[in-house]
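Changelog entry

Holo records now carry the ligand SMILES as an explicit input line rather than a separate metadata file. Below, a converted record for flavin-adenine dinucleotide, shown in the new format.
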Amino acid sequence: MDHSRTHAVAVIGAGPYGLSIAAHLRAHGVDFRIFGTPMHSWQAHMPAGMFLKSEGCASSLSEPTGYYTLKQYCADEGLTYGEHGIPVPGAVFTQYGLSFQKRLVPTVEDTMVTALDKMSDSFELRLASGEKVRTKMVVVATGLSNTAHIPRALAHLPPELLSHSSSHHDLGRFKGRDVTVIGGGQSALEAAALLHEVGADVRVLVRRPELSWNSTPIPGRRSLYDRTRRPMSNLGIGRGAWLYCNAPNVLCHLPERVRLAARVRQAFGPAGAWWLKERVLDRLPIMLGQFVQAAEARDGRVLLQLQGWNSERCHLMTDHVIAATGYRFALTSLPFLGERLLPQLRSVRQTPILSSNFESCVPGLYFTGLASAIQFGPAMRFLHGADYTARRISHHILGDRTRFRTPLSDGFKRLPRCKEFVTGEVVRPVIADYADANAHEPGQSAPVRVVLVQPSSDDLILSNG
Ligand SMILES: Cc1cc2nc3c(=O)[nH]c(=O)nc-3n(C[C@H](O)[C@H](O)[C@H](O)COP(=O)(O)OP(=O)(O)OC[C@H]3O[C@@H](n4cnc5c(N)ncnc54)[C@H](O)[C@@H]3O)c2cc1C
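Structure line, unchanged by the conversion:
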């Protein structure tokens, strides 16, 4: 790794989105670096023993050939797999992600980006290791990090009495304790099931008057009428789900007020997976239609003040509250965004306004995943959106092949561009010896080297001068 030069791309985050984008960039020979602990959210911020809510067919990372899917990983490892109807264990998905990283993105650097700022013609990243890195482009793929949402009524409680669901991997520490989980979505219901199963005395408080459940996959072939009326997609059955799944390119061009409409934003809203029902219903108390109005610490426990839909009030004492209250992206919550960069970003509801290529109004700065869901639709909150995102961003970056397939330097920009040509091997455009190129005025001829690149071999210097 050359630590002194300006690289083409930096990818911040090595979760499913970051790894997918990096796999595409690597396959296309783009000069990039990627930072972050591989699959960290899945290893540290999701509960051990969980299952994926998405079906097997919607739970793969993306790479250009489409070969290394979850299905392929399970076949290689001799694990049970089903496109629909067989829940995927979180541990299997995590191992698949790590295997994907080792095979397809071996260059991940396990360090955090602590600062990102814009220089005149590049970005500067500062790493936790102390290194400074310059790149022409940056892809922010930090996913759920720094997005945990806690309702205001609870936020003041101390950490020993309150935590967000993302703070827990091992729920075993709550064995024998009285725990109240707040929320009615998959995170809340699955955390409650797992807490019950490890021996905690758990209850769930849900704001809505009833729970929603995803429908059980229907085995067998459906009639043409049914398939037309309620088409099947990777994220469920129905025309809305089909549209969100298959047409992010259309959604991103819709007027902002349509994309911000509650119906679009709340699509795939809180709901339990079909396979979770039997582990929750009639097994633990679920209090429906309850708002938490206030909370206070009292004698090492929490006193919750609740108000029901019928305006009835009650109190509840509990040892610990787990807020499974979701995730909200906000630009101001990204700790690494520099003071010079932040004001340059145009945003709506604290999320960056993006082009149809995921590029923000700061050229070369891309946002993905949750940060792009207002623009491209709710599929971007799920693994399913990684494929569209990775293809779109890598194609956009590759749009200017001659700049980004090779190491960049200011000297290179001044040289006349050569045509790419193929003679059995892939030949890259002429790249100057940078020191010499810099010594020449624009328009004058500069000493050059022709670089022949054979796929998967080192550069071969063909001639000088
Ligand atoms: C409990 C739970 C269950 C879920 N189940 C499903 C499911 O079944 N199916 C589904 O499709 N989706 C599911 N999701 C949503 C899921 O999180 C996303 O689909 C997926 O993880 C998004 O990938 P990502 O790469 O955008 O984000 P993440 O997986 O969050 O990865 C982001 C990465 O960026 C890294 N990072 C953050 N800041 C920095 C920094 N400054 N420098 C370097 N690295 C950094 C983090 O460490 C992390 O590894 C679930 C979410 C939760 C919370």
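Spot-checked after migration. The chain has a mean pLDDT of 84. DSSP finds 17 helices and 23 strands in the chain.
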